[in-house]
Amino acid sequence: MTELRQVHDDARAIAEAALGRDPGPLTTAESISHRVYVGADIVVKVIDAAGHSRLDREIALVPHLPGGLTAPLLAAGLHGQVRYACYARVPGKAPGMGMPAADAATARSLAVQAVQRLHALHDWVPAGEAERTLREPLDHGGFVGRAELIAEIERLTAADRKAVVPAAALDRLTAIAESAPPNVRMDVPVHADCHWGNWLASGSDVTALLDFEWARFGDPVDDWFFVIADSGPHVSTVLEVVARETTTSSDTLRAQCEVREAAYLASDVRPALTRPDFPPRMFGERLRRLKEITIGRAWWR
C-alpha cells in the first residue's frame, strides 16, 4: 500500500473534509484488508485505488440498509491514490474474534441481539442499486450446494500431492458433502462475514454491525454460522440462542453450520497447497480446523 505516513495524512484530510472541521487525533484500528483510522466522531477506511473493489460494494449498500443496523456513511470516493469511506463513529467496541472477554451472560445477551439485527437484514427487500450490488458475482467460498462442494473437495484432493491432509479428514469431508442439501436459498440479503470482530457492543448491548464488503444474496444460515462458529468458549450457548430465536432444532443447526465450515475450509486449504506465497501460519490454522471439524467432529461435541 501507499507509504504509511502518506496514508495517515490522506485519512486526516478525508476526515476533515467529511466533518467540515479538524477531526482530532486519529488512531489506527486492526484490519486485514484496509487501513482504518478512528477519531472521536469518525472512522475512515482507505485502500489503494488499485486494490480490491469490495469497499465499493459496501459503499453502494450502506445507504440502503435497514435503519440502525450499521454506522452511517458520511462520505466516500477517491483521494489521490486511495479510495475511502467515512463513517460516523458508533459507540462501543468489537467483542472480538472468539469473544475473548465475554462472560456467559454477556455472550447470551449479545447473541440474542445479533440474531434480532440479522433478522432485520434478512427481512429487508433491497431494490435498485442495492439489489444489483447484492446480485453481482462474488467468489465468497461459501456453501452453494452439494455438487459444488463435492467438486471442491475433489479439487482439494487432486491438489494435495504430498498427502498433507489426512485421508480420514478427506473421507469425513466427503461424507459431510454427500449428506448436504443439493441446493440452498439464494434470495435473502446476508452479511456473510458477521463474526464477532465485525460487531460493535457497549457492555452487553449490540450497537452496530460493520463491514458489508461480503454482503450478497444467500441463505440466513450463512449468517447464523458466523455468529455461532466465532463465539469461542460460548459456542454451545450461542448455538442454543440461535436455535431458539430461529425455531430451528440444534441438530439441524449443527449440520447446517458444519457443511458451511466444510465449504469455507475446503476453498481455503486447496489454494494453500498450490500457492507458495500462501501465509504458512494461516495454512496451519486452516488445516488444524479442518481436522477438528472432520476427524474431531467438532460441531457434534
Write out key terms for the chains shown.
alpha+beta, 10 helices, Phosphorylase Kinase, domain 1, 2 domains
Mind explaining what this structure looks like?
The protein is an alpha+beta fold and 301 residues long. It folds into 2 domains: 4-88, 2-Layer Sandwich (Phosphorylase Kinase, domain 1), CATH 3.30.200; 104-300, Aminoglycoside phosphotransferase (APH), C-terminal lobe (Aminoglycoside 3'-phosphotransferase, Chain: A, domain 2), CATH 3.90.1200. The protein has helices at residues 4-19, 54-61, 104-123, 128-135, 146-159, 167-178, 221-229, 235-245, 250-274, 280-294; strands spanning 27-29, 35-38, 42-48, 73-79, 82-88, 188-190, 199-202, 205-209, 216-218. Helix 7 crosses helix 9 (250-274) and helix 9 (250-274) packs antiparallel against helix 10. The longest helix has 25 residues, at 250-274.
List the helices and strands and how they pair.
Layout: H1 4-19, E1 27-29, E2 35-38, E3 42-48, H2 54-61, E4 73-79, E5 82-88, H3 104-123, H4 128-135, H5 146-159, H6 167-178, E6 188-190, E7 199-202, E8 205-209, E9 216-218, H7 221-229, H8 235-245, H9 250-274, H10 280-294
Antiparallel strand pairs: 1-2, 2-3, 3-5, 4-5, 6-9, 7-8
Concise overview:
The protein has 301 residues and is α+β, with helices and mostly antiparallel strands.
- Count of folded domains: 2
Look at the structure and give the CATH class of the largest domain. Alpha Beta
Strand order of the largest sheet: 1-2-3-5-4
- Give the CATH topology of the largest domain: Aminoglycoside 3'-phosphotransferase, Chain: A, domain 2
Fourth-tier CATH superfamily name of the largest domain:
Aminoglycoside phosphotransferase (APH), C-terminal lobe
Number of beta strands = 9
> What Rg is obtained from the alpha carbons, in whole angstroms?
20 Å
Binned strand content: 5-15%
Structural class: alpha+beta
Helix content, binned percent = 40-55%
- Kindly report the average pLDDT value: 95
State the end-to-end CA separation.
43 Å
Poorly predicted regions = none
Spell out the helices and strands N to C.
Answer: HEEEHEEHHHHEEEEHHHH
Q: Count of DSSP helices?
A: 10
CATH architectural type of the largest domain: Alpha-Beta Complex
What is the 3D shape? Answer: globular
Give the biggest beta sheet: 5 strands, antiparallel
